[in-house]
Amino acid sequence: MAAQKYSLEDIRLRLNELDDQLLQLLSERRKLSIEVVKNKVETSKPVRDAVREQQLLTKLIHNGNEHYQLDAPYITKIFHTIIEDSVLLQQSYLQSLENPPSDQNPKCRVAFLGAKGSYSHLATREYFSRKNLNLVELNSDHFKDITETVESGHADYGVLPIENTSSGSINEVYDLLQNTKLHIVGELTLTVEHCLLSTQEIAIEDIKVLYSHPQPLKQCSEFISHMKDVTLESCISTANAMQRVAEMNSDSIAAIGNASSGKLYGLQSIKSNIANQTENYTRFIIVARQAVEVSHQIPAKTTLIMSTPQKAGSLVSALLVLQKLGINITKLESRPIMGNPWEEMFYVDLEVHLNSEPMQQALQELQKLTNYLKVLGCYPIENIKPTSVE
Fold it and tell me: What sections of the protein cross the membrane (predicted)?
C-alpha cells in the first residue's frame, strides 16, 4: 500500500500546531526558571551552576542524537539561547528584589541616541524588555543630550554606546563620563548587522552619496573603500540616515543601518554583511542618577576611573594591586584629562562586586597610589557566556 501523501496545507497546519506547542513549553520552562530562582533566594545559591549546565547540555545532545536524529550543533545553539534567557530572567528577578520599584506600574523614561530604529533604540528595547517597566522612549541628537537629560531628571536612564569590536572605543562617551555625576547601572552587548539600504533595488556602483552615523561608516570602511566616487554624509544616528534616504527617495543614495530597522522607513537591503568584521558587536552602558544594589548571587562588574602620578611605574603599581587581590581586568582605556595637558584618566572595568572584600581592599590601597579615584558603578554582568561542552 502506498504511503499516504499530505497536501502542503496539511503540512503547514501541523507545523503551526507544533509551533504553538513549542511556545507553550517555552512559557512553562520560563515559569519554572522563576521557581528555581525563588529557591535560590532561600538557599543563597548563585544563579549559574556551570557543572549542572554542562551535564544538562551533554544529556540533551546525547538524547537528541540517540532518539531524535538531531545533531549536536543544532541542539547546542537552541539550548544556549534557552539557558541565556533563563539566566537573565533569574538575574532580573534577583535585581528586582534588591531594587524594588516605588509603585506597581512604574514608568521608565529612557534617553538614547537617534530616532526609532537606531542601534541605540534597538539596545534600549532589548535591555529593558525583561525589566517589567512601562517604557517611555526619549530620542536624543547627541551623547551629551542623553547625560544632561538624565542628570536633569527628565529621563530615568540613558543608553550610551561605549565600544565596538570593529571601530574600538567611543571616545566622546568616555570623555563625558569624566564629568558626569551619573552611575553605570547596567550593560548590554548588541549584535550589529550593517546593511546597505535604499528605497529601491539599485546597483552599488550607481550610489553617489552614502548616509550613516560616523561609527558605522568607520566600521564598514573596507567595503566603502571599494565604492567609486561616493560621498559620505555623517548623520546623528543610523535612524536619521535611513529617514533622510527614505524622504529623498533617490536611485543614487543609500544608508548604512540595520535591515529590520530599515523596513520601518520603507527601505530594502541591497547588500548585507558589509562590516569590516563578521563578528561585529557594540557594548552599551546604562546610566542613571542613582546607583543600583547588585545581588551577591549575580556575577558583577565594577567600573572605576583613576589618574596616577606622572612618574615611572605609577600605573603599573596600581594594576599590581588588582592582580595581587585576584581581580580580573576586562577593560583598560586611557583618555586625556581636559585642561591638564599630557595627563590621562584611566577607565578600568573589573569582574568583581563593589562590596566584596577584595574590591574594598583594592579601593583602600588605590587611594594611596592615585591622584584621583572614582567608582562609576557596579552592575550585573549580562553578557552571558555560553555553556561549554566537550
Answer: none
